[in-house]
Each structure stands twice: as structure tokens, then as C-alpha cells.
Amino acid sequence: MLKNCVHASPKNQHNENYVEDVVCKTDEIGENEMKSLDLGEGKILLIKQNGKLSAIGAKCTHYGAPLSTGALGNGRVRCPWHGACFNITTGDIEDFPVMKNLRYRKLG
Ligand code: FES
């Protein structure tokens, strides 16, 4: 492992889709900052909060919004499009999307 570099990889290292690589230097991300970075064939969202680094998928699982443009709260990131919240340590969804601005029209 290289010193002062962030190595990103999934927690389950026995996964056949396991990918690990150096994505940036530790001093290239500030406190409460989020960065979308390339990893393998996809992107990750690297987050630094309370001095700890974590990485989750860069796109919202709802309609694929870029989470790097969302709002970082205490331990969670809120999707900029419909407000779903994801835990920044596990990537688990904690609040589901809200589609309150959609207007429904009867067809026919
Ligand atoms: S795209 Fe993220 S909540 Fe809809």
C-alpha cells in the first residue's frame, strides 16, 4: 500500500467484481468534501468526514443522479434530484426518494 494514497475497494474482497486501485492522495480531499473518482469501469464517491475516508457508488440508485452534487450531512449524503439519503459508510439507503413535484395527468 502506498503511503498517503487512498486505496478504494469494496468491503467484501471475495467478490469476483473486486476492484482495488489508488484513486487520489489523502491530502487531495478536504474535510466534508466529496469527490467523484474513476475506479475500474465505474465511479466512486469518495467522502472525508470526521477525518475518516469512505467510498460509496457515485450514482444514486433511483435514477442515477450524481451524488457528488448532493448535500453531505452527518454520516449521509442526500441525492440532489429526489432527496434519497445514503449512509456514507455502508452505502445503504436511509431515506427513500420523494417525488412530490410530479404532476399526474389522466390519459385518454
Ligand atoms: S435520482 Fe436520486 S432520489 Fe431520484
From TrEMBL:
Q: Which cofactor does it need?
A: [2Fe-2S] cluster
Rieske domain location? 21-108
Q: Which residues cross the membrane?
A: none
Pfam families (alphabetical) = Rieske (PF00355)
Record keywords, A-Z: 2Fe-2S, Iron, Iron-sulfur, Metal-binding
Tell me one GO molecular function of this protein.
Answer: 2 iron, 2 sulfur cluster binding
The record's annotation in PANTHER family points to:
FERREDOXIN-RELATED, RIESKE DOMAIN-CONTAINING PROTEIN
Supply the name of the protein: Rieske [2Fe-2S] domain
Task: State the species of origin.
Answer: Popillia japonica (Japanese beetle)
- What is the phylogenetic placement of the source species in the record? Eukaryota, Metazoa, Ecdysozoa, Arthropoda, Hexapoda
